[in-house]
Design goal:
Number of strands: 6
Shape: globular
Strand order of the largest sheet: 3-4-5-6
Structural class: alpha+beta
Largest sheet: 4 strands, mixed
Number of helices: 3
CATH architecture of one domain: 2-Layer Sandwich
CATH class of one domain: Alpha Beta
Radius of gyration: 13 Å
CATH topology of one domain: GMP Synthetase, Chain A, domain 3
Oligomer: single chain
Helix content: 10-25%
Length: 113
């Protein structure tokens, strides 16, 4: 099952992704757990914005999520991406996103508040 364990709490990325996809500037999103010394894992959102859309701030994205979800489900790390690694059937390969992050491939892509 696709799940993030943050401080002993089970969080489901699909729930966070569904809310983020309702933001008008978001084209695609993948939410994954990234390793963290304090929490075990933290919530990270990798977002592809719509072409030509004004890119929202991290604070705007957080506010959008918090209107529907509890604070612990809000990503602490945000990354802007141009594309996602996909399976042959077109599904996002979240394990490949985590591996690429661990290899430093998303350096310079992190969004800040």
């Amino acid at each position: 099952k696709d799940m993030i364990i943050r401080g002993g709490e089970n969080l489901f990325p699909v729930e966070i992704e569904e809310v983020l996809m309702r933001h008008p500037a978001v084209a695609e999103v993948a939410v994954v757990g990234l390793p963290d010394e304090r929490w075990g894992e933290v919530v990270a959102a990798f977002v592809r914005f719509l072409d030509g859309a004004e890119r929202p701030s991290v604070n705007e994205l957080r506010s959008h999520l918090r209107s529907e979800l509890s604070p612990q489900k809000t990503p602490t790390r945000w990354f802007a991406v141009d594309a996602f690694p996909l399976t042959g059937s077109g599904k996002v390969q979240k394990f490949a996103i985590r591996s690429a992050w661990e290899a430093g491939e998303y350096e310079g892509h992190e969004l800040t508040a």
